[in-house]
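Bumping with the actual sequence this time:
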Amino acid sequence: MDYKQILAILNKIKLKKEGVATLQTFFIFFFASIENLIRHGYGIVTGFILLAVVILGNRFGREGVAYVAVVTPPLAFAATALFWAILANNIHITKVFVDFLGALASAGLWLMLGAAFGWYTFLHQRAEKKVAAVRNRN
């Protein structure tokens, strides 16, 4: 296959909100779990995945999916981190809480970068719609 054919196929992909949220959650859980099992913590691999799923969620989502593409990654990562903290520490609530906060802190920068880009994209799309609506009225 030529790269132009691959780009043509990729340009046809438009996911609904459910598809974007499901794929983001899957990729975050998969890669964060692998990194946690290998390194016993979260780091640069999880960070790049968090950024990638925000960017790709906006890229492959339909019109109006930007909000879901921004909100899902932090929630999916928090659920993944809580799952592994509970699994590692059983019912020791204090240890679970410390591990969970440590996981969120280790991915904090990546979550903020993804949120900044995602919210910029979401608000930019909303502003473009308002400008287009005003221009169409005149």
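The tokens above came from a reply further down the thread. The chain has a mean pLDDT of 87.
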